[in-house]
Design a protein that fits this description.
Layout (H helix, E strand, L loop, with lengths): L13 H9 L5 H15 L5 E4 L2 H10 L14 E5 L25 H8 L3 E6 L32 H8 L5 E3 L9 H5 L3 E4 L22 E3 L2 H11 L26 E6 L10 H16 L2 E6 L2 H8 L8 H13 L6 H8 L6 H22 L4 E5 L7 H6 L1 H8 L5 H4 L3 E9 L5 E8 L4 H15 L14
Parallel strand pairs: 2-3, 2-4, 7-8, 7-9
Antiparallel strand pairs: 1-3, 4-6, 5-6, 5-10, 9-11, 10-11
């Protein structure tokens, strides 16, 4: 394999690549060759379910020579997509090989990125049918990019690890209950979960179609925003898109004197993880240094709404999405995934209506709390577990991972997971900024200020954000 080994230490963040392209010290062909070299060197890491043939990726890179880089906002940037998002010519498995099929067309959001000059490298492994936040609910799964004994986070496990380990510049996942945020935190990268309905989900295997969304994994908030700007917009193929979206209505939070909410002590938990608790308090102090005022809000309604996602009749939507396949292919489905989805059969239509009424009351309470602050911050995940620990208690520990994330899409919130600390055991810790619908750009601006102040490495590299 003819790979330019002197590129081995190159960061794939947007700024580094764009600088090299402008200076003519690199071409997209060089970058593609380096990417495939890195993938080859890692061997069987279960990050990928399939790769675009290298010759095809090189042809895409060569074709960019006919275009003006200034007219293509994602010019020459290698990316990957989670394997529940359709790409013409690549098999979609949703983490279950028996489910594998070739789609009729490429997902809308992926086509937008290709048209903007990004180069697709392949599809990433995931928790089967996007049911799990641990990242180990598939036949082969990647490990945490900092410590192989720990979970990578799910369900977008491969998508996060691919960015953290420098295999791509950015990737797409899916997020129903935290799958675009938890693996970001556990691998020290950014996870931008958009407001549901502003990035098309047409062309994917759904978990809960009414509030699924496509998150963006990147090394920096600035990079995630650049992808977001390309990805947003109307799509007639997606009936769940917002009408007349106005996601740029509030583009920033005040430079000082802004108010940040945190969960009240009674509802704030780290599941006995003192390192995570210490890291969260460090993040709070950093917010204060940036000019923020910290106030506690009543987190009870948020937590209660979150518990509805996997412990109630809302599960019926997952049963609609993949229940028939699971029923007919029981031996091909991860037993935990099958048990969770089939649990929906125990609820009636009346149960679902009652749950909806209960949800609306709780939603009113949660929004009243949100109106007290400019944004809410929570630990993206209250703790992190070893793989063997999760295998011994998969349901409860998965629920613990989702305590601070399950509620966001049900409430139609914008969310941004940002690296916050490297713990003294070497594992990453992240916080998540949340705000009301279509406050995505306001969160990105605040997140960028936080990431700049934190000065952490980019992903699992030694390159620090302030140096990139």
């Amino acid at each position: 394999m003819n790979v330019m080994r002197h590129l081995q230490g190159l960061s794939l963040d947007f700024n580094s690549l764009n600088k090299a392209y402008r200076a003519n010290t690199l071409t997209p062909i060089d970058v593609v060759r380096e990417v495939y070299g890195r993938i080859h060197d890692r061997g069987t890491d279960f990050v990928w379910t399939c790769l675009v043939p290298e010759s095809q990726a090189l042809a895409a890179a060569q074709a960019l020579a006919r275009h003006d880089p200034a007219q293509m906002p994602l010019y020459g940037l290698p990316f990957a997509v989670k394997d529940n998002i359709h790409v013409l010519g690549l098999k979609t498995t949703a983490g279950c090989p028996a489910y594998g099929h070739y789609p009729a067309k490429t997902a809308t959001v992926v086509q937008k990125l290709l048209d903007a000059g990004a180069i697709l490298i392949g599809k990433n492994s995931m928790d089967q049918f996007a049911t799990g936040l641990v990242g180990i609910r598939s036949a082969g799964y990647p490990v945490n990019s900092f410590d192989s004994e720990y979970i990578p986070g799910g369900s977008s496990s491969g998508s996060a690890v691919a960015v953290a380990t420098g295999l791509v510049s950015f990737s797409l996942g899916s997020d129903t209950g935290g799958s675009g945020r938890i693996p970001a935190a556990l691998n020290n990268i950014v996870g931008l979960k958009p407001t549901p309905g502003i990035i098309s989900t047409a062309g994917m295997v759904y978990a809960n179609r009414s509030f699924d969304c496509v998150p963006i994994f990147a090394l920096t908030c600035r990079d995630a925003k650049q992808v977001f700007d390309v990805a947003v917009g109307a799509d007639s193929d997606d009936p769940f898109m917002r009408e007349n979206p106005n996601y740029s209505a509030r583009s920033e939070i005040p430079a000082s004197g802004f108010i940040i909410g945190i969960p009240d002590k009674a509802n704030r938990t780290f599941f006995g993880d003192q390192r995570a608790e210490k890291s969260f308090h460090h993040a709070i102090h950093l917010i204060k240094d940036l000019g923020g005022e910290i106030v506690e809000i009543d987190f009870c309604a948020f937590a209660t709404i979150g518990s509805m996602l996997f412990d109630g009749p809302i599960l019926a939507e997952r049963l609609v999405s993949c229940g028939e396949f699971i029923e007919n292919h029981r031996h091909d489905v991860h037993p935990v995934v099958g048990a969770i989805v089939n649990k929906a059969k125990s609820y009636s239509a009346v149960d679902l209506v009652k749950e909806y009424h209960r949800f609306r009351q709780l939603m009113s309470t949660a929004y009243a709390e949100l109106r007290k602050v400019d944004a809410l911050i929570v630990p993206t995940a209250g703790t992190i577990y070893k793989i063997k620990t999760v295998e011994a208690d998969p349901i409860k520990l998965n629920a613990n991972m989702g305590y601070y994330s399950y509620f966001a899409n049900l409430l139609q919130l914008a969310a941004l997971a940002v690296p916050a600390a490297l713990r003294d055991d070497g594992l990453p810790f992240g916080i998540c900024f949340l705000a009301g619908p279509q406050q995505d750009l306001a969160l990105v601006a605040l997140g960028e200020r936080f990431q700049t102040a934190a000065r952490l490495p980019l992903g699992a590299t030694r390159i620090r954000y302030a140096e990139h």
